[in-house]
Amino acid sequence: MSAEGRRGGRSARRAERTSSAIRSLPALRRKIPVYEVLNAEGLEMIHDASLRILEEIGIDFRDEESLAIWREAGADIRGERVHIPRDLLMSLAGKAPPVFTMNARNPERSTDVGGDSMTFGPTYGSPFVRMFDNERRYGTLDDLAIFHKLAHMAPALHNTGAVTCEPTDSPVSRRHLHITASAIRLSDKPFMGPVTSPERAQDAIDMAGLVMGEEFVKNNAVMVSIMNCNSPLVWDETMLGALKVYARGGQASILAPFTLAGANTPASTVATVASLNAEALAAIAFAQAVQPGARVIYGNFLSTVSMKSGAPMTGNSECALMNFMIGQLARKYNVPWRSSGMITGSKIMDAQAAYESAFNMMPILLAGANYIMHTAGWTEAGLTANLSKFMLDAEQMEMLHKMGQGPSFDDFDEAMDAIREVGPAGHFFGTSHTQNHFQNAFFMSELADNNSFEQWEIDGSKDMTKRGFDAAEKALKDYVQPTLDPAIDEAITAFITKREEQIPAAFQ
Amino acid sequence: MSAEGRRGGRSARRAERTSSAIRSLPALRRKIPVYEVLNAEGLEMIHDASLRILEEIGIDFRDEESLAIWREAGADIRGERVHIPRDLLMSLAGKAPPVFTMNARNPERSTDVGGDSMTFGPTYGSPFVRMFDNERRYGTLDDLAIFHKLAHMAPALHNTGAVTCEPTDSPVSRRHLHITASAIRLSDKPFMGPVTSPERAQDAIDMAGLVMGEEFVKNNAVMVSIMNCNSPLVWDETMLGALKVYARGGQASILAPFTLAGANTPASTVATVASLNAEALAAIAFAQAVQPGARVIYGNFLSTVSMKSGAPMTGNSECALMNFMIGQLARKYNVPWRSSGMITGSKIMDAQAAYESAFNMMPILLAGANYIMHTAGWTEAGLTANLSKFMLDAEQMEMLHKMGQGPSFDDFDEAMDAIREVGPAGHFFGTSHTQNHFQNAFFMSELADNNSFEQWEIDGSKDMTKRGFDAAEKALKDYVQPTLDPAIDEAITAFITKREEQIPAAFQ
Q1: Measured between CA atoms, how close is B67 to chain A, in angstroms?
Q2: Test mutation, A442, A443, A459, A463, chain B, max B CBs within 10 A
Q3: Secondary structure of A299-343 in the HEC alphabet?
Q4: pLDDT digits (tens, 9 = 90+) for B378-408
Q5: What's the N-to-C CA distance of chain B in angstroms?
Q6: Three-class SS state of A255
Q7: Cis peptide bond upstream of A292, omega within 30
Q8: Which residue of A has its CA nearest to B413?
């Protein structure tokens, strides 16, 4: 009998794949304490400094309607400069919900955002990719489809993201339609929305309505979008345009100062945090002025800048300390907060990429961030989405997901009995405790190689980066597209066709 | 004028090198809080379970004199099995000093061990090396010399270690003489002592006496040595032999359960910690029975074991959680504690090596370990000392040293003035605050490449591992041997000659 015959042939294998649900971890419910680096006095000093920035220096909102909204709310407007009295600021910010549900088209993949819930998402926005051949080139829709499929399959990724790589073969003006359709079709996890214009934001909301119902989308968050502040202290028209659409449309917005500490903030961690905190608070309050109760996430993107080369740096002491501080502030304001996890300046998936990603991510886990972007695939300060790193990072996030659940005393008595049974000089493999608990006791990486040197040589002396690319190839063979009602699928196609007739193709 | 002439020629450069002190960081005085994962009840449960292990199961001390010491102290001895009543155990353990000074031959390199002091040391005990050609082979005395020189030069390494790699070209029976001489001559930092027999331990003490004075060595710790427990619950004759010599000789001992969690402990983090805590406490108490006030360090070496392959694993969720717990226990007992930092099962310096090292080390920093071994160069579960990783890890430890000092509010007002001065949409490079503070504001790695892709290509498209080897080569060119009184140098040579006449060469 042939090997093929024994296994039942191609159709049997396909049936098995289709029937088996993907392995999927829920949002991490953090059971370990948060780590805090500031005492109460330090926290208050930063908070107060942020309020003084907004009262005394002010912040620019470069959008007429936004200025009108601020004026109406009671802020002091001078040109584009908005001065926000602290009572007004805190009263508006206090309207933001501390926790909200992020709804997926498959309700099993919906998650909470906020409180003790932590979710992990892939990298976002890279123009370049390194795919199977590890060569750096511009990304395409096909590359994006690969990332969306792998995000769907990665157990510890709680959303599909959106523009994991820029699909540069699609016109900029129409790209958001194809990115959104790809995320909706290839994965049933929550996804992210476009922010490059109000119209594009509305298109994404309309497409989500086709899948989940217009009425549902009006009343429930089905996507998260990210608006960056032009630090220092400028919110621009594009970001404000998207924010207004999403806030009014019931969708969630990350309001994220983009920090190059030392360049667009002072060369000081605490003053940097005071500055970015002012920016985030101003936008959180603004969103509430647009739509009371708007679902917002206190955002941040942190890097420090080399005072020798001007290059952004991450995975270092100051990024760790600032993440701890920001977590404390977000909890003080009782809003969900977002950070950026497995990030690096390395051009490739090498030791630098792993050091920086790990040294950046571990503090974020312990700081208790709620919505963590860039936890898989980021390299080159975000310029390249790396396929190997996507797989490797995603597995490390499974490890951190396990860590966040903390130690368990549930089987403590049984384990102590095993110590008694084995006594000095024995081993524990055969004890009933081990037999009962080995599967969940310790995290076991599939992509790390902990075998002997000799076995590793027999297996081809592969470094971890090679194993990451191999793992991506293997995973894609097992990919099964999640079910989508054919009528919905057709409606998405029809929507894109209609919109493409209305939107001229533009590559810039 | 030639380039050589402009710079003053070889002798001028040599003078400059000789005159310039090496860059060196003191022991980290931790200013950030410790992270604790156990509440008071959990901590008490583990503590109590450890005491019950020693009372009810007992622990083997496989050495006649040690059993006699225990009997004399009041323990219940049955064969080699020692049952230790909790009052006896805690009263003995309470005699251990909470903090002691680790003296270097250069007093500027002496450090505290314990309290809020944290020191970092290189990898220890690898039979294999990967040096400049990145080929795996047995280590030699020449390789060891390279590691000792680089440890001397590494700013964040606070000791030279000892047997960074095994010098396999030196007979086992005489090897300790050459290892100790190399550490003494090539570096002026504290070093570690041999533990493979009581005689070898005594040789190291005698050699230290030649350098620092016999009387001084009798009364002050000048080396730390490491004794591993044969877990579960066995202290063997070799380790006890060395421990007795060092305890009586005033020298410091790390008493370290060697944990392969799931193999020599139960498949449970909390029960594993209860078991290793019993082992460590028994040895701490024993050392005090040998010599009240003996300088000891609560030790541990942590790995988990893959239930699929039996391979040891590190840098994972369970190692992190166990490090946090052990830190809490050591503080409860008020003794210094040791952990193992930048460790990995990877055979090479790749992404796995960096992920595992970083994910292992960051929790140890936050757990506040006092004496951290294996913070530079460890690969292959300790079997290979990797020269590139030595350089790269050592630099990451500088980063963590900076992180441990926490955020500074000293220049907060000045930085807030800069925010006022720049206002919205500016940049901070030109502010007086930046000019005054940029040098110490952010950690700047020399070995990470955060330049543009194009610049990185121009620089040879090197991965970080290549840069690590290059950095080792460059550093060695700048190495200057620390001054040692020629009479002492001769005395060391004479001592080795005398002992080699007494000790037959044996390679096994």
Answers
A1: 16
A2: A442
A3: CCEEEEECCCCCCEECCCHHHHHHHHHHHHHHHHHCCCEEEECCC
A4: 999 999 999 999 999 999 999 999 999 999 9
A5: 59
A6: strand
A7: no
A8: A271
| Gap from A152 CA to chain B (nearest CA, Å) | 24
CA of B232 vs chain A CAs: smallest distance (Å):
5
More confidently predicted of B359 and B310:
B359
According to DSSP H, which parts of A258-315 are helical?
269-290
For B128, phi and psi rounded to 5 degrees? -105, 160
Tokens of B197: 């027999």
pLDDT in tens, A291-313: 999 999 999 999 999 988 899 99
What is the Cα–Cα distance from A397 to A348, expressed in whole angstroms? 19
- Taking CB atoms and an 8 Å limit, are A443 and B317 in contact across chains? yes
Element (H, E) at A206: helix A198-212
Of A41, A339, A320, residue with least CA distance to B412: A41
Instruction: Provide the token pair at B414.
Output: 């000045």
Residues of B in contact with A265 (CB under 8 A): 419, 428
Which of A77, A236, A317, A322 should be substituted to probe chain B, the one whose Cβ sees the most B Cβ atoms within 10 Å? Answer: A317
Kindly list the residues from chain B whose CB atom is less than 8 angstroms away from the CB atom of residue A353. Answer: 351, 354
Beta strands in B351-466 (DSSP E): 371-373, 378-379, 384-386
A219, pLDDT greater than 80:
yes
pLDDT of residue A135 exceeding 70, the answer is yes
Residue A448 makes CB contacts below 8 A (sequence gap 6+) with A464, B313, B345, B346, B352, B355, B356
Radius of gyration of chain B, Cα coordinates, nearest whole angstrom: 24
Q: Which of A32, A270, A325 sits opposite B412 (nearest CB)?
A: A270
Cβ distance A399 to B426 less than 8 Å, yes or no, reads no
Q: Calculate the alpha carbon distances from A432 to A411, A414, B97, B231, B271 in Å.
A: 12, 9, 41, 19, 14
Phi, psi of B238 (to 5 degrees): -60, -50
Is residue B349 within 8 Å of residue B389, measured between CB atoms?
yes
Q: In Å, how far is A43's CA from the nearest CA of chain B?
A: 11
State CA A392 to chain mean position distance.
16
* Contact status, residue A115 vs residue A370, Cβ threshold 8 Å: yes
The length of chain A, given as a count of residues: 508
CB A195 within 8 A of CB A238: yes
Distances (CA, A) of B232 to A269, A407, B92: 46, 21, 22
pLDDT in tens, B118-147: 999 999 999 999 999 999 999 999 999 999
Of B60, B412, B420, the CB nearest to A424: B60
- Cβ distance B441 to A269 less than 8 Å, yes or no, reads yes
- Do A232 and B57 lie within an 8 Å CB cutoff? no
CA distance B379 to chain A (A): 11
Amino acid at B219: N
Q: Which of B324, B383, B396, B419 to mutate to test the interface with A (most CBs of A within 10 A)?
A: B419
What is the dihedral angle through the alpha carbons of B194, B200, B205, B208, rounded to the nearest 10 degrees? -70
Question: How far, in Å, CA of B164 to CA of B175, rounded?
Answer: 13
Decide if A363 and B363 are in contact by the 8 Å CB cutoff: no
The DSSP secondary-structure symbol of A127 reads S
Query: In Å, how far from its chain's centre is CA B482?
Result: 21
Cβ contacts from A onto B, under 8 A: 402
| Among chain B residues, CA nearest to A314 | B450
For the stretch A465-500, what's the b/e string if a residue is b when 16 or more beta carbons lie within 10 angstroms of its beta carbon?
Answer: bebbbbbbeebeeebeebebeeeeeeebeebbeebe
User: A71: Cβ–Cβ under 8 A, 6 or more apart, which residues?
Assistant: A77
DSSP bridge partners of A237 = none
